[in-house]
Design a protein that fits this description.
Blueprint lengths: L1 E8 L2 E8 L2 E6 L6 H9 L6 E6 L9 E4 L12 H11 L4 H14 L15 H13 L5 E5 L7 H12 L5 E5 L3 H4 L4 E6 L2 E6 L1 H8 L7 H10 L1
Parallel strand pairs: 3-7, 3-8, 5-6, 6-7
Antiparallel strand pairs: 1-2, 1-4, 8-9
Length: 227
């Protein structure tokens, strides 16, 4: 369980929140606090007050994978295989183990053919997949994705989350502007003005958002049909 208690940072104020295992989507208008909340979950930012703990441990004390909206900002190394293997090398794992785990995740992500390519030559979508591969190669306790799918078409985005769902990552917390993707989750959190407005399964939250931009078109059509 990810537990949030009396959390404050800038305009973000969350008195209490529990995020169960699975996929949680964070939605809401620009400036509502989505990226701030994700950075706090990832341990990139420290709360001004209050706390976030992941299974009783602070984010900076557990394994967290992070991918932001701008792929180029995720990279340290020049080639795909160097970038994806780097989190394992930073842990000083044996070379054989590094290469086995790196090649496994490249295969899972469909990136094997790109392993020797310079990252600068990749498309935006390919860069996203490389960044995600580097974020999950260590089998993190929590994967945080901040609108990284903005560089992917709908089919690739859906395929990415199918892959991630099969990796047994305990917690995936993400933000996205694509409501079709957002609603493919176990839980939705809708933020507005730095506060949680709605929280729960997509079917529950959707009933309160059906007349807003934060409702999938496919669900809207079905909702109108049922009405």
């Amino acid at each position: 369980m990810i537990s949030v208690q009396d959390l404050r940072f800038n305009n973000l104020k969350i008195p209490s929140l529990r995020i169960p295992a699975g996929i949680t989507s964070i939605i809401g208008p620009n400036g509502c606090g989505k990226t701030t909340f994700l950075r706090l979950c990832a341990g990139i930012t420290v709360p001004e007050s209050g706390s976030i703990v992941i299974n009783g441990v602070l984010p900076r004390e557990c394994e967290v994978g992070w991918v932001n909206e701008f792929p180029d900002r995720n990279f340290i190394f020049d080639s795909v295989i160097e970038e994806v293997s780097s989190p394992l090398r930073f842990r000083h794992l044996p070379e054989t183990e590094v290469m086995i785990k790196t090649r496994r995740i490249l295969d899972i992500m469909g990136l094997t053919s790109l392993s020797g390519r310079p990252i600068r030559e990749l498309s935006g979508g390919e860069k996203v997949l490389v960044a995600v591969a580097a974020a999950v190669v260590t089998c993190p306790d929590l994967l945080v994705l901040d609108e990284c799918d903005s560089h992917l078409d709908t089919a690739c985005s859906h395929q990415l989350y199918q892959i991630l769902s099969g990796l047994s990552i305990p917690y995936i917390v993400r933000s996205t502007q694509d409501m079709e993707t957002a609603y493919q989750a176990d839980q939705l959190i809708c933020l507005e003005g730095g506060s949680i407005q709605f929280l729960g399964p997509p079917e529950s939250v959707g009933t309160s958002l059906s007349d807003t931009p934060f409702f999938p078109l496919s669900w809207r059509c079905g909702y109108q049909h049922l009405s």
